[in-house]
Design a protein that fits this description.
Elements (H helix, E strand, L loop, with lengths): L7 E5 L6 H10 L3 E5 L3 H9 L10 H12 L4 E3 L7 H11 L3 E4 L6 H4 L3 H25 L4 E7 L16 E7 L5 E7 L7 H20 L2 E7 L1 E3 L25 H11 L3 E4 L5 E6 H13 L9 E5 L2 E4 H12 L3 E4 L16 H5 L7 H13 L33
Parallel strand pairs: 1-2, 1-4, 2-3, 4-5, 5-8, 8-12, 9-11, 10-14
Antiparallel strand pairs: 6-7, 11-13
Helix pairs in contact: 1-9, 4-6, 6-7, 8-10, 8-12
The structure holds nicotinamide-adenine-dinucleotide (NAD) and sulfoquinovose-uridine-C1,5'-diphosphate (USQ).
Length: 406
């Protein structure tokens, strides 16, 4: 890579599930990577008394091993970006990043719905984090490209028979004089949890700072990430990525893979008719690279990409994993408030046009069960599997109905 292409990239939340493999991927490409993380996710592991299925190493060990394996140094700063504004601003001024990638938010929907305390933490943390990053970019006077990890959940999951566009919806409105004019508006927000609501609010921060201060922003509306490792995290076991399987942080497909590895019935919420968007972690890191390499120009509106590669119904995923592994399926109470059945189709041409070659679920699922979930199955605490966070007090938790000794 020539010096011109090499960028200084600050990764906020670079110790997390998406942030760690992204940091290594970008460092491996020759970029100068700086991680900022307050390790709050590791503290939440302590709060929930549940650790990653994979044995993740302390951040100091991770960075030392990366230096030994790759020869590349990554600097680390422990800063709470939601609270420590002056520290964040000083760091931006000192490091002078070309790009900031923002992963640093509380990202679990069930965790955000556990109690008033968790709702308030999620709102305080996520909204202040995003506003502080934007404010620090303005205060620094630097022309930083901000890449944010958003969610497909901002759209809601009902699409009225059309494909969800990438961020902006074409509309036609009648004027007072009877003419009809065409416009593009931000797709109407329809969040399904307090966490998802913070992501819809983030969009408005981006819209405002882009309009008012001309900040160049890419917002990636990402689907559910599955898988564990990427080419870089596989270079040494001590670089291994996090694998969440508990009822709060475990996402649906990784949970099914881990449940299959230990013979625990696959916990389908309700009928499993919920259709969601998915992407493999290897494609996540590649998409972020592509977003960095294709920045918006000064004066462009917020650039929005749908960062997903396929859509599936939850029960179809359960049936696929059951067929491949022989695990049974348990249809449990849905602890969430969400449509029992929906169709979800979304455009994702912008990444395909820029060279993404997706990993398909059909290829990768079984490998993931055998290479990761089975290998670390002995670390699982099965009491942490049921989804115990309910959206309302009246709802019931997502526990399999039978008691068959698991
Ligand atoms: P994660 O919880 O594993 O990582 C987030 C990291 O940010 C953690 O290391 C945490 O310690 C850090 N962090 C949180 N608040 C912070 C603060 N105030 N200051 C400094 N650091 C802070 O989550 P993830 O799965 O890596 O998700 C990263 C981003 O991607 C999130 O914003 C999430 O909304 C988005 N996303 C994730 C998924 C998914 O399936 N994992 C899907 C779509 C979008
Ligand atoms: N589900 C089950 N069984 C389980 C776990 C989940 O049926 O054991 C169902 C849920 O009820 C839901 C669907 O699977 O209908 C997805 O749940 P999830 O926990 O995998 O994903 P979600 O809560 O939507 O959140 C995850 C990430 C979040 C990200 C979002 C992308 O935690 O950070 O924003 O995926 S998206 O779903 O596109 O909004």
């Amino acid at each position: 890579m020539s010096n011109k292409e090499q960028k200084k990239i600050m990764i906020l939340g670079g110790d997390g599930f998406c942030g760690w493999p992204t940091s290594l991927h970008l460092s491996n490409l020759g970029h100068d990577v700086v991680i900022v993380d307050n390790l709050s996710r590791r503290n939440i592991d302590n709060e929930l008394e549940c650790q990653s299925l994979t044995p993740i190493q302390p951040i100091g060990t991770r960075l030392k091993v990366w230096k030994d394996v790759s020869g590349q140094s990554i600097k680390f700063y422990n800063i709470n970006i939601a609270n420590d504004y002056e520290l964040l601003l000083d760091l931006v001024k000192t490091e002078q990043p070309d790009v900031i990638v923002h992963f640093a938010e509380q990202r679990s929907a069930p965790y955000s719905m556990k109690s008033a305390k968790h709702k308030r933490y999620t709102v305080d943390n996520n909204l202040n984090a995003t506003n502080n990053v934007l404010s620090a970019i303005v205060d620094s006077g630097l022309d930083v490209h901000l890449v944010h990890l958003g969610t497909m959940g901002v759209y809601g999951y009902g699409t009225a028979g059309m494909k969800i566009p990438e961020g902006y919806l074409d509309i036609e409105v009648p004027t007072e004089t009877g003419e009809r004019i065409q416009q593009q508006i931000l797709y109407p927000a329809n969040p399904g949890s307090i966490y998802h609501m913070t992501k819809t609010q983030d969009q408005l921060f981006f819209h405002f700072y882009n309009k008012n201060d001309g900040i160049r922003i890419t917002d990636l509306h990402q689907g559910i990430v599955w898988g564990t490792n990427t080419r870089e995290t596989m270079l040494d076991e001590r670089l291994i990525n996090r694998f969440d399987y508990d009822g709060d942080y475990g996402t649906v497909l990784n949970r099914f893979l881990m449940q299959a590895a230990i013979g625990y019935p696959l916990t389908v919420h309700g009928t499993g008719g919920q259709m969601r968007a998915f992407i493999h972690i290897q494609d996540t890191v590649r998409c972020i690279q592509l977003a960095i390499e294709n920045p918006p120009s000064k004066g462009d509106r917020v650039m929005i990409f749908n960062q997903m590669t396929e859509t599936h119904k939850v029960r179809d995923l359960a049936e696929l994993v059951a067929r491949l592994t022989g695990t049974e399926i348990a249809y449990v109470h849905n602890p969430r408030k969400e449509a029992a059945e929906n169709e979800l189709h979304a455009k994702h041409e912008l990444f395909l046009e820029r060279g993404l070659n997706p990993t398909t679920l059909a290829e990768g699922v079984l490998l993931e069960v055998t290479d990761v979930a089975k290998r670390y199955a002995h670390r699982a605490d099965i009491s942490k599997i049921p989804a115990t966070s309910t959206w309302t007090k009246e709802q019931q938790v997502g526990v399999p109905d039978r008691n068959a000794g698991y």
